[in-house]
Amino acid sequence: KPTLYIVSTPIGNLKDITYRAIEILSSVDYILAEDTRVTDKLLKHYFINKKLISYHEHNKFEKEELILKLLSENNHIALVSDAGTPMISDPGYEITQTVMQNEYPVVAIPGASALLTALITSNIAPMPFIFIGFLPRKQSDQKTFLEKYKSYQEALIIYESPKRIEKTLQVIYEVYGNRKISLARELTKKFETITNGYIEDILKTELNLLGEYVLIIEGNQIEVDYNEITIEAHVLLYIKQGY
Ligand code: SAM
User: Fold this and answer.
1) How much is the pLDDT for 240?
2) N or C terminus of the chain: which is more exposed, having fewer CB within 10 Å?
3) Alpha helices, H only, 46-148
4) Can you supply one Gene Ontology CC term for this chain's record (predicted)?
């Protein structure tokens, strides 16, 4: 049956792609690509010659009709983004919904994603975590957004552009105080740099801020008051027993 494959591609190092992904990209009839020039480079590296269709944030709804038509004509289609896993802070979610509703299979081909790669070397407990993606752009919206997660114990994973990283770190410091963070820059690339530590120290350090970033913030480390927990547990038990 004609299928839509959601294919993960590298996040920098072109070798970070699976054999299966290469096999799928070589065998499909069409590839939907966020930026056809970026995908072209990847395909050339692996000697794959395929018809590319541009599919991105600004044309994703217009392209639905064409994609359904191609599937109805028995074509297999792959969707890739510029880097990593489609749908992770990248387009793709809507088309998977439409394709599933029209009863064609959607198959995920797993691979690289910046968020998991960054988590491994963050020196922050990896689970549980909350993946946020990009923060709102406006500083006031950022603050309101971050406030919402202030009491959460989960590690927070944020994507950020080099233009805003410094300001974002300031806002995080203002809202959360001196927490442990990890800055993962240019993962899998030549200038990969991981900076782990307390945000106050990191803000004082001269950092080269060029390149792409994943930012991980340690969750709220509350001091546990065991007396209170016992009292709460009693109360819970009380309610459950129906007294
Ligand atoms: N779909 C991608 C994924 O699976 O990770 C994410 C795409 S999103 C549009 C781009 C953002 O991902 C960048 O701004 C950066 O925050 C992060 N990112 C992607 N590649 C990266 C890399 N090599 N090193 C650090 N961060 C990266």
Assistant:
1) 37
2) C
3) 64-72, 93-101, 114-120, 139-148
4) cytoplasm
* Cα of 69 from ligand 1 centre, angstroms: 31
Cα of 143 to ligand 1 centre, how many Å? 22
Q: What is the pLDDT of residue 235?
A: 47
Please list, in sequence order, all residues whose beta carbon lies within 8 angstroms of the beta carbon of residue 13, skipping any fewer than 6 positions away.
Answer: 188, 189
pLDDT tens digit string along 123-162?
A: 999 999 999 999 999 999 999 999 999 999 999 999 998 8
Q: Residue 239 Cα, ligand 1 centroid: separation in angstroms? A: 47
Q: What is the pLDDT of residue 229?
A: 54
ipTM of the complex: 0.99
| CB-defined site of ligand 1, < 6 Å | 11-12, 81, 83-85, 88-90, 113-115, 159-161, 184, 186-189, 212-214
Give pLDDT, residue 55: 98
Tokens of 192: 């990969």
pLDDT of res. 170? 95
Residue nearest to atom 12 of ligand 1 (CA): 159
CA of 237 to the centre of ligand 1 (A): 46
Which of 160, 175, 165 is CA-nearest to residue 220? 175
- First-residue to last-residue Cα distance in the chain: 59
